[in-house]
UniProtKB/TrEMBL annotation:
Domain of life: Bacteria
Species in which this protein is naturally found: Cesiribacter andamanensis AMV16
Organism placement in taxonomy: Bacteria, Pseudomonadati, Bacteroidota, Cytophagia, Cytophagales
The name this protein goes by in its record: Uncharacterized protein
Length: 216
């Protein structure tokens, strides 16, 4: 089971989550006109964290893409979460925060199938209100595939934030890859952990070569 947490609790506990979500929301919020009532309503309802709770908390600025070479969707969904667990273990991370970048309820998340939505509801103990969760990395094999092939495009699907170990944010993209944010001095450790786990770590070019839409 996942441990439910409020979004504010996660931002209070994790400087990375605090800085990352504030940066992403702030970026997208610039496209809204607060003078338009409908746009202001969306901002007030969903953009709950446009400023950090703690001054000085900033999103890590180094970036990389993490993925797995696979031939089929089923193979990717089965192997990637297990490899990710090994990757995180190498970095000293045993727990992750799970959250959406906006304050949607989890009932609103566009899971690929009704079965996936029902499975998530069971893991979340029915706590589907806007909020987040703490999970053990051994739960990734059950949890992460639920978010693959969802109906969310052109924006972050979910965020996983390391609760210990290296400061690290993992954003699931609609291409099935993970976009990492970290401190540059930690890049060698990430590269070594990816190699050990059988994962590919690279730049933006990775997304043009490896993406789940190509898989059968």
């Amino acid at each position: 089971m996942l441990t439910p947490l409020s979004r504010k609790d996660i931002f209070s506990q994790s400087p990375v989550a605090d800085g990352m979500i504030a940066e992403v929301q702030g970026f997208y919020a610039r496209g809204f006109d607060e003078a338009v009532p409908e746009e202001l309503e969306v901002l007030n309802r969903l953009y709950d964290h446009r400023q950090v709770l703690q001054p000085g908390n900033k999103a890590p600025q180094a970036e990389a893409i993490l993925t797995l070479r696979a031939r089929t969707r089923s193979g990717y969904a089965r192997r990637f979460p297990k490899a990710l667990q090994g990757f995180l273990e190498q970095l000293g991370c045993r727990h992750l925060y799970l959250l959406d970048w906006l304050a949607f309820s989890w009932q609103e998340f566009p899971f690929e199938t009704a079965d996936k939505a029902a499975t998530f509801s069971r893991l979340a103990q029915g706590r589907l209100e806007p909020g987040g969760f703490l999970l053990e990395i051994r739960q990734l094999s059950r949890l992460l595939p639920l978010f693959f092939f969802s109906g969310r495009f052109d924006g972050p699907v979910i965020y996983l934030i390391a609760a210990e170990g290296l400061p690290l944010s993992l954003q699931l993209c609609d291409d099935g890859n993970l976009h990492l944010a970290f401190h540059e001095q930690d890049r060698p450790a990430l590269e070594a952990a990816a190699s050990q786990a059988g994962l590919l770590l690279g730049g933006d070019e990775v997304c043009f070569v490896y993406y789940t839409q190509k898989l059968t």
